[in-house]
């Protein structure tokens, strides 16, 4: 029987320190303050109220038997599993995992707290160019193919199509800003797929998000408006167990796993026939839930459904589909979600410190965090001495920046909720590309400080340009990747190393035989399997060997690091152990260049 229970982190996101922080009444952000004229929305949303959903507790491990924490019995479980199997009779998709157990670069304290701001509109951020403000939304195309689809299924590029407004307008015209035609043209890569078609069925993993009333909110493939009947089946299954004072958590039906995550008025479901475990899939659902909270705080979400339980949340989340789509793809391709860590750019310690010093000198009094990022990697992070950013929050920041090309063309000012920092209120992010592939983010608790942070950006860019630091950073980015040949370990093909001390990871580029999408996915599945075995709740392992006809995988966990490495299939255990120690010595020598060891603070 498989019951999900989050592993105890070294520093729990819900520790007393953080609880005091979140409950601090001296709020920096106040919903009562009016927005500045530049950012003032023309209309306000109404807060709607809802009957709370019942939260219960049940675990299911097979289609013929289940185990309940309440000891209640299920009348016709086989009928339910048969019904589910017929609802989605197939599917393939991708894999990924995210475990966020540790805080990054420091502790949080309660010296600062945030409070609820006004409801965000579907016009998610304000972009400023040449001193003028322009409202825009994140309906932008996401490039790239889904590597987890069948190899013979051809990926389609995103297209722009004419906008069709949601017919189910549950809010009146006076209480909701209508969708902007400029961004309604976003068409999702697989949005055209009919749920009755073979292409929709062939995906190996589906994600569904719906309200407790069965209203569709999001689906990874197809159009959520066309699968309302499926959402109704999901809602009925959840209610079936709720009637017996249980909460459904997982159903195994044939090749498929059905993972349920109930978060207040939202139900999140993963339907998968990949090799991912229940815990890994549940972590992915938590990331999707946090992505929604980044746009709409938990307090607002609760209030909305307290007054109208059948509220259609798609109207408030309009324009955020690219970010949900980009997140589902990133969780399949990037090991950081599985490891609960972030990846930093490899560069010299001296250059990184120079960049941090410049950001420190240009800091304004209303700045909370400042960071330079590139391609989902962190260059440097400036933070308060007693505050930190959780890896899960950084993943959301990376996803926001990479999920839309709009940020590359204008200076942008966007509200964002970082759920691990405070899921009840917004921070505000100034986003600007200082070079073609280098993005500067300045995060403030004050919603009216766009121009102050814009001036701080100008100071940073001027100092970096004067000392040719910016050019040095760009040059470093051209040479920041490394290969197995640079490591010089015989027999080693690839590895992922996580520093548990710094909550960061490093990995070389893929080379033969892992230099094509199919082999990359195959290797990542082996890493994922090894990770799951080593973090098992039932029997966690410190060292794990897995030998296949084509490679040998080593998993090794200590108090300070996690190592996942791929060797040839004929390597002996003694040679593998010896090579691993050589690898660890190389990482130790390069530690200052691979990781942010000492984050600049103020």
TrEMBL record:
Q: Which InterPro entries does this entry report, sorted A to Z?
A: FUZ/MON1/HPS1_longin_1 (IPR043972), FUZ/MON1/HPS1_longin_2 (IPR043971), FUZ/MON1/HPS1_longin_3 (IPR043970), Longin-like_dom_sf (IPR011012), Mon1 (IPR004353)
Q: Name one GO biological process term.
A: autophagy
Where found in the cell?
A: Endosome, Multivesicular body membrane; Prevacuolar compartment membrane; Vacuole membrane
Read off the Pfam families from this record: Fuz_longin_1, Fuz_longin_2, Fuz_longin_3
Identify the keywords attached in UniProt to this record, alphabetized.
Autophagy, Endosome, Membrane, Protein transport, Transport, Vacuole
Give the residue ranges for region: Disordered. 115-162
Record field: transmembrane: none
Q: Could you tell me which residue ranges the FUZ/MON1/HPS1 second Longin domain spans?
A: 365-461
Q: Is the keyword Protein transport assigned to this protein?
A: yes
Gene Ontology terms, cellular component aspect? fungal-type vacuole membrane; Mon1-Ccz1 complex; multivesicular body membrane
Biased composition range(s): Polar residues: 115-136
Domain FUZ/MON1/HPS1 first Longin, which positions? 205-327
Q: What is the recorded membrane topology of this protein?
A: Peripheral membrane protein
Domain (FUZ/MON1/HPS1 third Longin) spans: 491-591
Q: Where is the composition biased (Acidic residues)?
A: 144-162
Family statement: Belongs to the MON1/SAND family.
Explain the purpose of this protein. Answer: Required for multiple vacuole delivery pathways including the cytoplasm to vacuole transport (Cvt), autophagy, pexophagy and endocytosis.
Protein name per UniProt: Vacuolar fusion protein MON1
């Amino acid at each position: 029987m498989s019951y999900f229970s989050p592993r105890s982190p070294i520093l729990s996101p819900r520790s007393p320190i953080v609880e005091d922080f979140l409950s601090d009444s001296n709020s920096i952000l106040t919903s009562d303050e009016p927005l500045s004229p530049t950012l003032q929305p023309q209309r306000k949303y109404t807060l709607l109220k809802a009957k709370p959903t019942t939260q219960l507790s049940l675990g299911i491990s097979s289609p013929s038997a289940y185990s309940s924490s309440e000891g209640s019995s299920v009348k016709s479980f086989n009928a339910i599993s048969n019904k589910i199997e017929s609802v989605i009779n197939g599917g393939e998709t991708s894999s990924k995992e995210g475990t966020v157990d540790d805080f990054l670069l420091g502790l949080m304290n309660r010296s600062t707290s945030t409070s609820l701001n006004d409801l965000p509109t579907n016009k998610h951020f304000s972009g400023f160019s040449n001193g003028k403000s322009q409202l825009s939304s994140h309906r932008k195309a996401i490039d790239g193919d889904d590597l987890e689809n069948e190899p013979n299924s051809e990926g389609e590029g995103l297209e722009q199509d004419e906008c069709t407004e949601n017919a189910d307008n549950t809010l009146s015209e006076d209480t909701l800003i209508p969708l902007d035609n400029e961004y309604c043209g976003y068409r999702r890569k697989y949005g055209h797929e009919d749920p009755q078609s073979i292409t929709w069925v062939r995906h190996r993993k589906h994600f569904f998000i719906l309200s407790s009333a069965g209203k569709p909110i999001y689906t990874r493939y197809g159009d959520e408006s066309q699968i309302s009947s499926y959402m109704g089946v999901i809602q009925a299954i959840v209610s079936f167990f709720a009637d017996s004072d249980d909460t459904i958590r997982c159903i195994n039906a044939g090749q498929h796993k059905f993972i349920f995550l109930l978060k207040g008025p939202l139900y999140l479901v993963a339907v998968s026939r990949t090799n991912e475990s229940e815990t890994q899939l549940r972590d992915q659902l938590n990331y999707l839930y946090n992505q929604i909270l980044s746009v709409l705080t938990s307090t607002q979400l609760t209030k909305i459904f307290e007054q109208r339980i059948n509220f259609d949340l798609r109207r408030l989340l309009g324009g955020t589909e690219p970010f949900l789509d980009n997140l589902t793809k990133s969780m399949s391709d990037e090991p950081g979600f599985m490891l609960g860590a972030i990846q930093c750019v490899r560069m010299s310690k001296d250059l990184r410190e120079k960049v941090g010093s410049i950001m420190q000198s240009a800091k304004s009094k209303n700045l909370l965090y400042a960071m330079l990022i590139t391609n989902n990697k962190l260059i440097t992070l400036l933070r308060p001495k007693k505050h930190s950013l959780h890896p899960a929050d950084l993943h959301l920041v990376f996803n926001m920046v990479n999920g839309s090309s709009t940020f590359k063309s204008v200076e942008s000012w966007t509200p964002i909720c970082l759920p691990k920092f405070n899921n009840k209120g917004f921070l505000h992010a100034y986003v600007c590309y200082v070079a073609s592939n280098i993005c500067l983010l300045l995060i403030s608790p004050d919603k009216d400080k766009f121009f102050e942070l814009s001036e701080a950006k100008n100071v940073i860019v001027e100092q970096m340009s004067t000392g040719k630091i910016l050019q040095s950073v760009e040059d470093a980015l051209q040479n920041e990747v490394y290969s197995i040949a640079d490591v010089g370990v015989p027999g080693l093909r690839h590895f992922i190393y996580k520093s548990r001390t710094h909550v960061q990871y490093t990995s070389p580029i893929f080379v033969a035989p892992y230099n094509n999408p199919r082999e990359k996915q195959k290797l990542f599945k082996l890493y994922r399997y090894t990770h799951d075995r080593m973090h098992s709740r039932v029997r966690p392992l410190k060292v794990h060997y897995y030998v296949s006809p084509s490679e040998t995988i080593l998993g090794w966990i200590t108090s300070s690091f996690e190592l996942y490495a791929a060797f040839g299939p004929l390597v002996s255990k003694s040679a593998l152990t010896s090579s691993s120690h050589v690898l660890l010595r190389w990482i130790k020598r390069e530690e200052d260049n691979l990781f942010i060891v000492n984050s600049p603070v103020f």
